[in-house]
Amino acid sequence: MDYATTLLAAVLLGVGFVLQQYSALQEPESRFLRLRILTDLLRQPRWLLGVGCMIGGYVAVAWSIDHLELTVVEPLLTTYLVWALILAVPMSRQSVKVAEVIGALILITGVGLLSATRSVTPIGLDFGSLSHWYAAAIIAGIAFVAVMIGHRRSGQVRATLTGLGAGLVFGIQDALTRQTLTGLQFNSWTVLFTMWSAYALVGAGIVGIWLMQNAFSAAPLHASLPAIAAGEPLAGIALGIVVFGDRVQITPGMLAIEAGGIAALIVGVVAVARSSAFSSLRHITDVIRPGADGADARTTVDAHTRVDAPASRPSRDRSSRRQSPNGASFAAGSAESVPVARKFSRPAHRRQVQDSPSGDGR
Fold first, then answer.
1. Going by C-beta distance under 8 Å and a sequence separation of 6 or more, which residues neighbour residue 38?
2. I want to staple 201 with a disulfide (CB 3.0 to 4.6 A). Which of 16, 130, 165, 176 is the partner?
3. Mean pLDDT to the nearest integer, 70-80
4. Residue 70 in contact with residue 240, Cβ under 8 Å?
5. C-alpha to C-alpha distance for 259 and 25, rounded to whole angstroms
6. What span, in angstroms and rounded, lies between the C-alpha atoms of 262 and 290?
7. Is the pLDDT of residue 139 over 70?
8. Gyration radius of the chain's alpha carbons
9. Is the pTM of this model over 0.70?
10. Closest to 40 in 3D by CA, of 54, 57, 25, 52
11. Burial, 252: exposed, middle or buried (Cβ in 10 Å; 0-12, 13-18, 19+)?
C-alpha cells in the first residue's frame, strides 16, 4: 500500500509537470524570476489543472513520507519521468524511441536497487531542533547560487540551473513535510499554527513552484526536468540521513548495490528526460502562443498577406506602374518585394492621375 501510494504520487506529479510546462513556456523571457509569471499562469486553466495534479501528488507524497523513509520515497518519486513521458508522447505526436525505453528501464532498475537496500519502516528519529537543519541551509545556499548563475545565462543553461534550484528546494520541502507530520503525531491539527516547520513548509512550496515555472518558461522540458528530478532526491536523501538519521548500509555488498542504483538512477533520468517528446512540446506552444511579437509577428503577417492577397491585384499594380513616367523604378523587384512596392507605388500613382489634365498620367 505504501509503495502504491508513492507510485500514485509519481503519476500525479508527472502529469502535473507536463501540463504546467505546456503553459509556462508561453511566458515571455522578460518575466523570468518575476512574480508576475505566477499571476499570469493563474489565469490559464491548463496550468491550474497541472497544479491541481501536483498538489494531489504531494498529498500522496506526505502520506508516503509518514510511512516510509525519505531514502525510500525519493527514488520512487523519480519515476514520474516515465509517466510524464507517457503523457508527452501523444501531446507532441512523437513516437517512443528504443533509447527512451531503455532509459526508463534503467531508471526503474536504479529505483529498485536503492529501494532494496532500505528499510520500509522509518526509525522514527525526531531531533526537534533547528540546530540539526544546517544541512538544509547549505542545500538552500547551493540552490540560490545555481539560480543566480542561471539568471545570467539564457536558454537551456538557464532552465537547467533554475530547475536544479527548484529540485533542491523540493527536497527541502519533503524533509519539512516529514518534520511537520512527526510533530502532528498524537496532537491536534491546531498545533500546526505553533510549529515552525509548517510555515517553512509553505514557504518552501511556494518558492519551489515559482522556480519551477521559471525553469519551464526558459526552455523545453528536456532542459529542466532532469535537474529537477535529480535535485529533489539528492536533497531529500541527504536530509533524511543527516536530519532524521535514516540508516545507510555500510557493508561492501550494500555499498556496491547503492552505488549502482544511484548511477542507474542518474543515467535513466537523463535518458528519459531528454526524450524528443519533451523537446517537441516547445514547437506546440510556439504555434499556440498568443500575442507573438517582434520578427515572428511580422513574419506571420507577411505570410498571410502573400497567401490571402487576390491574384488580380498584382496585375493592376503592374498596369499602373506602366502608365507612370517613372514606372520602371517601381517595376523592379522580386515577388517578395511586391507588398513593399505596392505600399509606395499607390500614393504616387494617385497623385499623378489627379494632377494630369487628361487623367492618363501624361
1. 209, 210, 213
2. 176
3. 79
4. yes
5. 36
6. 42
7. yes
8. 29
9. no
10. 25
11. exposed
Angle value at C-alpha 77, between 74 and 79, nearest 5 degrees: 130
Identify whether the C-beta of residue 47 lies closer than 8 Å to the C-beta of residue 41: yes
- Per the structure block, which three cell numbers stand in for 16? 502535473
Distance between CA atoms of residues 302 and 170, nearest Å = 46
- Identity of residue 213: Q
Neighbour tally for 134: CB within 10 Å: 11
How many angstroms separate the CA atoms of 12 and 188, rounded? 29
Q: How many residues does the chain have?
A: 362
pLDDT in tens, 232-255: 888 888 888 888 877 766 778 888
pLDDT tens, position by position, 18-30: 888 878 877 887 7
Residue 34 neighbours by CB under 8 Å, 6+ apart:
none
Query: Secondary structure of the chain in the HEC alphabet?
Result: CHHHHHHHHHHHHHHHHHHHHHHHCCCCHHHCCCCHHHHHHCCCHHHHHHHHHHHHHHHHHHHHHHHCCHHHHHHHHCCHHHHHHHHHHHHHCCCCCHHHHHHHHHHHHHHHHHHHCCCCCCCCCCCCCHHHHHHHHHHHHHHHHHHHHHHCCCHHHHHHHHHHHHHHHHHHHHHHHHHHHHHHCCCCHHHHHHCHHHHHHHHHHHHHHHHHHHHHHHCCHHHHHHHHHHHHHHHHHHHHHHCCCCCCCCCHHHHHHHHHHHHHHHHHHHHHHCCHHHHHHHHHHHHHCCCCCHHHHHHHHHHHHHHHCCCHHHHHHHHHHHHCCCHHHHHCCCHHHHHHHHHHHHHHHHHHHHHCCCCCCC
Q: What is the mean pLDDT of the chain?
A: 74
Q: In angstroms, how far is CA 254 from the centroid of its own chain?
A: 35
Amino acid at 256: A
Higher-confidence position of 50 and 101: 50
Distances (CA, A) of 341 to 92, 317, 336: 41, 9, 10
Ranges of each domain in the chain: 2-288, 307-355
Alpha carbons 230 and 225: distance in angstroms, whole number: 8
User: What span, in angstroms and rounded, lies between the C-alpha atoms of 340 and 330?
Assistant: 10
